[in-house]
Design brief:
With about 650 residues, the chain is mainly beta. It has one domain: Beta Barrel (Maltoporin, Chain A). Helix content is about 5%, strand content about 55%. It has seven helices and 37 strands.
Length: about 650
């Protein structure tokens, strides 16, 4: 069991905030104006224009097709996690936000966080099968193509306005790595902040986090936001493993900056994060229980985006120019000697997209995406005596035209179609279509039939990395893995307060890229391991009352199979259940949020010499959240793992 206390307030109260948080610690934050009551909406969502959608607060999603549309009518199963959800449940990072979404699981190996989607979470995968965006900017890194969802990510959760989760293959719009889904984190605007904020978190394991933010929209139209966060944690004082106890080896420190400035139609966004984490597990055969093994991640990005709309012809233009930088340093202790494992990547890219309304029933969006990874560098060396074990440097370019189209065949029937071609400079290419039919047979009922394909090209780490043949060797040649997905979605409004969603899906993966232990030499290596399948049903029932009480119950059944062996995939829970509650206690100012989750047992790595099984577990988290008890302040106290359950996560063979 562990607890955290987080406080946020206008900067004019910063001195009082520091005094307040020197005690047990609270979460205090500047409150934004309450949303006005929703206006009456048309019963048929297909008849609502974009302007009407914005006026009546119909929930919309941008990430499904790169333009705004109602979530119920998007060609995907969509979940929106709002900033209010994050506050009421005390989520501390993006891992916890996504771990609350139906069909998603989050695991942790004491160094990085990993995301499983629809029963698929393979060892050695650094979140390369989900595409992570920040305000539409791709942040999967250059070398590993991984999505940073833990404390190595760019954003303090207080900067999040909402998180759009789009399930299913997204390569028809986004290309490689949009394999099982797309996550787009939409950040707060300067106009939302309306001044300065200061925040301080105090948590278990000597965890401290501070943030200062400044944001505003000026009278001349200029809007800006600047925010910095500092985090320090000692971690668990003592951790027990089969090899023994690791004492004082779980520490973490990090710094991050996020900034945006713009005028209507043009904005520049940038971010920077650095994070150092000790490794207590003795992974990759390092000396167990000895200080010195740790990783450091440094990331930065800049994104210049232009948007313009011409009302008369009904044309929208989106253009962006961007740059990304990633640097990783792994330090590993072997019999007293330090092995260093650096990787560095840089890329720039540009995208242009034009969306045209053709009459009242047809919308077409076409774009061209260009990415040039001009530095992809990996090394491994021993410091004393200096021995270079491995060095590789390369570049990569991909050019990708894409098109999506939406036809309203009838007033209650819409057909979606799209495709994207990704051309790589190594003469490989991938074509991925997406089809969707959305039907609203009666008011309050939406049915979707969806099909799509996606691909993931092997990244440089999977293809080339080795550490001098000590624990890992290069694959050298890997085919892209592909997935075909079929899905049926039923969304049902049950009166004013209840809503039910059910999805049934089947996917088939070919040429799955998996890290295995080669029995011939005992070294880790990535291989195309054949065909995997997955099938499942995701159900969710939600209730929201007028007084602020909310409850959401979800159950997911998923079943995966390695077609070659007939066995279930490792780290694939068959059952997931979650129950979220938000209970108002006093005049829309005091709330209790609870989250009860169940994860069924999973098999550990099927490629290891002695595969095993990790038991299922229940977890209960609770948050007490207050707002406006003191003008301009709010506070929350969170307790995680309230039942103090001991549980384990399955990890890869490197641990």
């Amino acid at each position: 069991m562990n607890s955290s206390f987080h406080s946020r307030a206008p900067a004019c109260h910063a001195a009082a905030l520091l005094l307040l948080c020197a005690g047990p610690g609270l979460r205090v934050e500047e409150l934004r104006a309450a949303e006005p009551p929703q206006a009456a909406t048309k019963t048929n969502l297909m008849e609502i224009s974009l302007d009407e959608l914005l006026a009546v607060k119909v929930q919309t999603v941008i990430s499904a097709a790169k333009y705004a549309q109602p979530t119920a009518l998007a060609p995907a199963s969509v979940t929106i996690v709002t900033d209010r959800d994050i506050q009421l449940h005390g989520y501390r990072n993006l891992t916890e936000v996504l771990g609350s979404v139906r069909g998603f699981t989050a695991t942790y190996d004491r160094n990085y966080h990993y995301l499983g989607i629809r029963g698929f979470n393979r060892p050695g995968d650094y979140n390369s099968r989900v595409l992570l965006l920040i305000d539409g900017h791709r942040v999967n890194d250059v070398v590993y193509d991984g999505a940073p969802i833990g404390n190595d990510g760019y954003l303090d959760v207080d900067l999040i306005d909402r998180v759009e989760v789009v399930r299913g293959p997204g390569s028809a719009v986004y290309g490689s790595s949009a394999f099982f889904g797309v996550v787009n984190v939409i950040t707060r605007r300067g106009r939302d902040m309306k001044g300065a904020e200061a925040a301080l978190t105090v948590g278990a394991f000597d965890t401290y986090q501070g943030r200062f933010s400044l944001g505003q929209q000026l009278t001349n139209g200029v809007e800006f936001l600047l925010s910095g966060t500092v985090r320090e944690s000692e971690g668990h004082r003592q951790l027990s493993f089969p090899a023994g106890s690791a004492v004082g080896l779980d520490g973490e420190s990090g710094r991050s900056l996020f900034a945006r400035i713009g005028v209507p139609g043009l904005e520049l966004t940038g971010g920077f994060v650095t994070r150092t984490k000790q490794i207590p597990t003795g992974s990759y055969g390092t000396d167990f229980g000895v200080a010195g093994s740790q990783t450091r991640d440094d990331k930065a990005f800049a994104d210049l985006k232009m948007q313009r709309r011409w009302e008369e012809p009904g044309v929208d233009l989106l253009a962006r120019l961007y740059y990304d930088y990633d640097r990783y340093r792994g330090y590993y202790i072997y019999t007293g000697a330090r092995n260093v494992d650096p990787a560095e990547g840089q890329r720039w890219g540009a995208e242009v997209q034009v969306t045209k309304e053709i009459g009242e029933r047809h919308k077409v969006s076409a774009g061209l995406d260009f990415r040039n990874s001009f530095q992809i560098q990996q090394e491994n060396f021993t410091e004393v005596p200096f021995t270079l074990n491995f060095s590789d440097s390369r570049q990569s370019t991909v050019i990708s035209p894409y098109i999506t189209s939406q036809w309203q065949l009838r007033s209650n029937l819409t057909f979606h179609a799209g495709a994207r071609l990704d051309y790589f400079d190594n003469a490989t290419h991938s074509a991925n279509p997406r089809l969707g039919l959305v039907w609203q047979p009666v008011d309050g009922t939406v049915l979707k039939g969806l099909y799509g394909t996606a691909f993931r090209a092997a990244n440089a780490y999977e293809l080339q990395y080795n550490d001098g043949m000590v624990t890992q060797k290069p694959a050298l040649s890997l085919r892209p893995e592909t997935v075909d997905t079929y899905e049926l979605v039923w969304e049902q409004a049950l009166g004013r307060h209840w809503h039910f969603t059910s999805s049934a899906y089947f996917y088939e993966i070919n040429n799955a890229i998996t890290q295995i232990t080669d029995p011939a030499d005992g070294l880790l290596v990535f291989r195309n391991t054949g065909q995997n399948t997955g099938r499942g049903v995701e159900n969710e029932l939600a209730y929201k009352s007028d007084n602020g009480f909310c409850t959401r119950l979800s159950y997911v059944f998923s079943e995966t199979e390695d077609r070659g062996t007939g066995a279930a995939l490792s780290n694939s829970p068959k059952h997931l259940a979650r129950w979220h509650n938000t209970l108002p206690l006093h005049a829309d100012k005091v709330f209790i949020g609870t989250e009860l989750t169940y994860t069924s047992p999973v098999q550990t790595s099927a490629t290891s010499a002695s595969p095993g099984r990790v038991g299922g577990y229940w977890l209960l988290n609770a948050t007490l959240y207050t707002r406006e008890l003191v003008r301009g302040w709010s506070a929350s106290v969170s307790v995680h793992n309230l039942l103090d359950r001991r549980y384990q996560n399955a990890v890869g063979d490197e641990i």
